[in-house]
Amino acid sequence: MEIRHPYLMFLGDAPDQLAAKTANGVKVWREDWCLGQFRLPGCNADLKLPDMSIEEAAAAGVKTVILGVANRGGFMPDSWLVELEKALDLGMEIASGLHTRISTIPSLAEKAKAKGLGLYDVRHPTGNFSIANGKRRPGKRLLPVGTDCSVGKMFTALAIERELHNRGVKASFRATGQTGIFIAGSGVSVDAVVADFISGAVEELAPANDADHWDLVEGQGSLFHASYAGVTMGLIHGAQPDAMVLCHEANRPHMRGLPEYPVPSLSECIPYYLQAARLTNPDAQFVGVCVNTSSLDDAAAEDFLKKASDETGLPAVDPIRNGVGAIVDNMPL
Amino acid sequence: MEIRHPYLMFLGDAPDQLAAKTANGVKVWREDWCLGQFRLPGCNADLKLPDMSIEEAAAAGVKTVILGVANRGGFMPDSWLVELEKALDLGMEIASGLHTRISTIPSLAEKAKAKGLGLYDVRHPTGNFSIANGKRRPGKRLLPVGTDCSVGKMFTALAIERELHNRGVKASFRATGQTGIFIAGSGVSVDAVVADFISGAVEELAPANDADHWDLVEGQGSLFHASYAGVTMGLIHGAQPDAMVLCHEANRPHMRGLPEYPVPSLSECIPYYLQAARLTNPDAQFVGVCVNTSSLDDAAAEDFLKKASDETGLPAVDPIRNGVGAIVDNMPL
User: Does an H or E element contain A236, and which?
Assistant: First the structure.
């Protein structure tokens, strides 16, 4: 799967900005690829991109329509389908982050097949993965891991990729979730892979590379999350990270979706993640802490980061407030 | 899925005894359910069950034909297909542990549908599982875990189930792999579940129960296995074990399939497994060690078990040589 850009961001009738979270992430990290947005009546999301009809997008050179929104009730409204059929008629491909598989919708599947166009369901891996072999491979890899889910692991990986590129270091973001896949143009939704193949899929996603090349592997879940830790464990083993960054959200009241589960402390996380990572890479180290401090004012954020650094002995930053330079400084480049 | 017994064990033209490993496990633990075996010319496996034709099995009251063998090259030979069609014609269901899905073989699928008979592909879960909720649930659960894969976790769970039944304790074996599923008549191949649902599938497999009831959950993989630890982690969290048994094979040269990976020591395993298990059950404890000492003579086995017990402070047995009474004595019944 290689999703071709530039993109048209299809927002449909997204009820609010949150429903377009994925599309927004793509715009933040790949604005150059996003030529416009497509909105239907009733759409309450806005990426601040030029509004375009399907015809205008085709004329502007869009190669792929990106369905980066949540659809209501998990089904594809007719009002969307008409427009997506038009996109195929005009020679554009479609990549979807919906749970619904667009590749199984007959009218889209038939048109795409007839015209030799791709329909990409990025939540649903189609590859045949191998069982992980655990063999050490050249190239360096960094993996952000979390105290919890949804604490900024993708943002961290992308910010570090950008900082490495700015410093002239060879680096590639490797996507493991739907937003990341749109941003990278390729990747594997590892949480949707058959359990036996989690680590194997990651070995394939971030393969052997030049000794001075860094893969920034998108993290998923948390070893401390009762629902998803299996995915996280397999991802760690497959990534064989040389470097990890511990990601955290300040003041989160409990583990995401699990009110009975407190968020672990940073110092509780570090040895557990190190033990997991050192199974497949005995040299694994933490190189920094990234905290989402959006709930704090400047002074409180600074204080929080100072304490996080004292607790862990690592540089601690909010990637949005501070950038990730201090963490990259600490990487074994 | 409820696989009805009694069974006919279909060995086909299995080239050797090892190819019938699954069938043999079923016979060992559920001999009463196994009325006979079916062998084709060239079969070199023998379960020491009465040989039966498909017609004889139907006449004897067999409800399900069990495909508990490895097929060569992953495809279904015509010589097997003819016999399986005959089984459906005679009203028997089929349960298969093959990678090949029998439910997608047109001649079998059509016959089964027409007659309302089940075709069960036990390696391929068909349920829609939920994401794990991590909520504590009543009933007690024991989970065998391993230094490595294939160290006797299923055997341990079944031996403890039998010992508990002998002592009048309510107990149920919960199967998570193909052989176990044939033995239990139900279960989920957790390594074939989509990664996000590993823990959720186990929560469903071993649900809330009476406070004095024990589920013996079949273990899978090892937290120390670079290929499968994600499955193991999800299984531990979903099982919420009150008790764990550490399983090990004496003198194994390296982790199964991974020549570069040494087998961890018992004392290295215990704290790591405890940390994993205590996320969802803070009361999790180890209650014993089970060692496969088949490579050792009696004196060496005794010595090995004594050292294992000294190293861990737990009762250590070879379930085959010693039974599991000492471990059950140590369970918080």
Answer: helix A229-239
